[in-house]
Amino acid sequence: MCQREHVNDPQPGVYERVRKVRIAEWRPEWLQGSKRSRGAIQRFLTERRAGDSAVSNRGQGPRKDSRQCPVRQTMDALTRWLSLRAYGLVTSTLFGATSVPSKMRARFERLGSVSREKIRRKFPKIVFDDHTTGHVLIESVRAVESPARIILYLHGGAFFMGSPASYRNRAMRLSFRCGAEVFVPNYRLAPEHPYPAALDDALDAWTFVRDARPDSQIFVAGDSAGGGLGLSLLVRLRDLGRTMPNGAILLSPWTDLSVSGASVDGNRRRDLWFTRRHLETWAGYYAAAADRRSPCVSPVFADLSALPPLLLFVGENELLLDDALRVRDRAMGTGTDVRVHIGRGMQHDWPLTLPWLDESRLAWKAMGRFIEEIAQAIDRFPGRA
């Protein structure tokens, strides 16, 4: 049973209660309809998950053998250890708490950007398109010939870094893994454009994508600051009475710019990049004069009722652990369907930054299953979404 915590009064030591991976039960109550319809959807998704589990178990043979091999086990552990330490060394060196935002932004672009031409040389069939809505530029990526769905992806970067170019590889992977056309808006960045610029641009991007693909299943996804922005977008859409996405995937979401989560101090010796000073300083770039505990700035304090299904990923050892866990508890308390994957020993954004690790591969598979389950339920029960 998941323990709830009071959002306005974080319980000390909450991070210690999740030292082992726990996944919140996902109850598919998100489709509207009669009790009989919801029961049918429940049975369908339960059977679907059981089938996936059976397939997964049948495929565990080689992995079980590899774990029984001491050499392979040692090599896997060494790869994980080296990857995490290298991640910590690079991020803490290039993106310090008090480094100049413009310099960090340039480093982020140099580190992550890849040209379309370079990608096309390796994947000739990939398709890129450019779109514009108002002042917001949007890049779309299709890594599959016939995308079955749409994903609006809000990139991370602490609200002052990141772009479609530096997230091009990640958008391509998301498109391929989820069979989707991925739209990445180039929303305005702090400190030049503080709150609510990013949220306004995200809303404009959603409106454009919804109008451009009116008959498609659309999901919202984002990581870090983009994960928090994605949750804020859902709350804004609900409050405006607008069409909602079919679901949302949030990776290491930064949902509390007041930096009040217990894991900020509890994981300070485990997080290899962030410190309290990072979060407090960087939150100021975006929040500026706004109240950092405002639900519009920090969606962990928002009413999370009547939202679509949420899938959250968070590293066990990152400072933002409680940002995800409190969203889970608050969402579950209002009846919103949510599941959380906690990566044992993992750091911030691990499925994106360390995609070669086994933990990351499992996370990517979970994203694909989440989307497929929702899509198949909608197809099976049309008119209930």
| C-alpha end-to-end distance | 28 Å
User: How many helices in DSSP terms?
Assistant: 13
For CATH, the homologous superfamily of the domain at 66-130 and 222-380 is named as: Alpha/Beta hydrolase fold, catalytic domain
CATH-derived architecture of the domain at 66-130 and 222-380: 3-Layer(aba) Sandwich
Structural class category: alpha/beta
Silhouette: globular
Secondary-structure element series: HHHHHEEEHEHEHEHHEHEHH
- E-strand count: 8
Give Rg in angstroms: 20 Å
Which CATH class of the domain at 66-130 and 222-380? Alpha Beta
Tell me what portion of residues adopts beta-strand conformation: 5-15%
What is the secondary structure topology, with strand pairs?
Blueprint: H1 35-58, H2 61-68, H3 70-94, H4 101-112, H5 116-122, E1 127-133, E2 136-142, E3 149-154, H6 168-178, E4 180-185, H7 197-212, E5 218-223, H8 225-240, E6 247-251, H9 263-266, H10 276-287, E7 310-315, H11 321-333, E8 338-343, H12 350-353, H13 358-380
Parallel strand pairs: 3-4, 3-5, 5-6, 6-7, 7-8
Antiparallel strand pairs: 1-2, 2-4
Structure description:
This protein has helices at 35-58, 61-68, 70-94, 101-112, 116-122, 168-178, 197-212, 225-240, 263-266, 276-287, 321-333, 350-353, 358-380, and strands at 127-133, 136-142, 149-154, 180-185, 218-223, 247-251, 310-315, 338-343. The protein has 385 residues and is α/β, with parallel strands linked by helices. The protein has a domain at 66-130 and 222-380: 3-Layer(aba) Sandwich (Rossmann fold). Strands 1-2-4-3-5-6-7-8 form an 8-stranded mixed beta sheet, with helices on both faces. Helix 7 (197-212) crosses helix 8.
